[in-house]
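Changelog-adjacent note: as of this version, every example in the card shows the full chain rather than a window. The one below runs 258 residues end to end.
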Amino acid sequence: MPAPINRLKQRLVAGEVTHGLWLGLGEPYAAEIAAEAGFDWLLIDGEHAPNDIRSISAQIAVLQGKGAESVVRPVDDNPAFIKQVLDVGAQTLLIPMVECADQVRRIVRATRYAPDGTRGVGAALARASGFGAIGDYLTTANQQVCVIVQLESRAGLAALDAILQVEEVDGVFIGPADLAADMGYPGQTEHPHVREVVLDALRRTRAAGRAAGVLATTPEFLAASREAGATFLGAGIDVTLLAQSLRTLARTCKAADD
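Full-length structure tokens:
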């Protein structure tokens, strides 16, 4: 029996547009609620959210079979943590702070078993192999891993063409927040200059036949990104949506008393 088919990878390779939500609350119950919303994928954030390997594992577990595919963003490109994330069942990874093609090659190798890479073999202990029940896991897992690299600096964007030459890369995600700060526009992710750089990178990525991704939290930016060719579209963040809803409710309640 082979490794489970990565449905999200199949859809991205086919050029389908997918929509997802960032999970930053770090709680399986919250992830399960999000899974009922109808998104194509849910990204468990290990970079900026209070997640560790146990909380990531717990969220992957509750999302299984719910329809939304799990994506994990590790804190960085550390091969040891990438190995753990894959072992607990992640098949699609979004790796942040990528700035050159050599870094991408190291990342890809960390996700592959030998002879194609350096991923440590401990499949009998892992959820990914059904705890040893998937007999062909070691020989089929490599093909089902989806690697999306996140470019979020001027250096990363300058290396885009070289990164797109790395055949094993399934997609490129542009991070507007860090990019805006690096360009001298902190907090201005939709500044016209930032937006044009982002949209240009999406067009170039899609033209190269790879999935292009971005987090676009306004309808206008979402539509522009889709038009530019983005197929891996983050539409919101659970923390932000909860905070905004609570503040709106509080203001409404207080206004009723005035």
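Structural remarks: The CA atoms of residues 149 and 172 lie 5 Å apart.
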